[in-house]
ABC-type sugar transport system ATPase subunit
Amino acid sequence: MQIALKDFTKSFDGHTVIDRMNLTIEDGEMLALLGPSGCGKSTTLFAICGIHRINGGQILFGDRDVSHLPSQKRNVGVVFQNYALYPHMSVYDNIAFPLTIKRTGKTEIDRQVREIAEMTHIEELLARRPAQLSGGQQQRVALARALVRKPDVLLLDEPLANLDAKLRLEMRSEIRRIQLETGITAVLVTHDQVEAMSMCDRIAIMSRGEILQVATPTDMYRAPETRFVAGFLGNPP
Ligand code: ADP
Ligand code: MG
């Protein structure tokens, strides 16, 4: 589903951090929100998610204005760096949880949990507890839990930040594979330009609450429109 921010504005304690941002994420694309720490990436993601109330503008899911809907009433899947799994539940119950809230029937829950577990390659881990999993396996479970309700949009906030370098590489291609297989619209928040370039269809570069340029990785690299963009892409922090 197409997701659009129209004149999205957000302030904290009277201090405006995002001022009339416009951004469209096309149906089925994976878009990176890329920029240095503190530029407003998570704030933008939280607005799409509905975790934060916005101070101005609109958030559209397709042609539906969801600006005033709480998070539970938006069909979003989220994977955050520190959005932990429920430690007292099995992997199966963790994934099934969003469906039990929706009062889906047992047989249907079982079918959907197994389908998404197969897609994320965790079928053999369903009986375990989160503490018995590696970091990469935990992120696979978090992805499965985010996707099981077939959300309108998948929101990923620095999902690879807690993984070691080898796992990070593996999960980059795994997340992209799953996104392409499901065809879900996705937003990846990252401060890592290589991650954005290698995983996404388009990149939106942010600085100080503003989007400076939106382009495919190739176009962004070939034709940066500002010195900031060129510097950010060229000089890994
Ligand atoms: P990023 O995710 O790009 O690192 P954030 O969206 O977290 O950046 O933050 C953008 C700006 O908003 C920062 O200046 C940050 O200090 C401020 N900010 C974020 N969340 C809050 C909050 N809950 N209260 C006050 N200020 C906040
Ligand atoms: Mg952040």
About this structure: The longest helix spans residues 165-182.
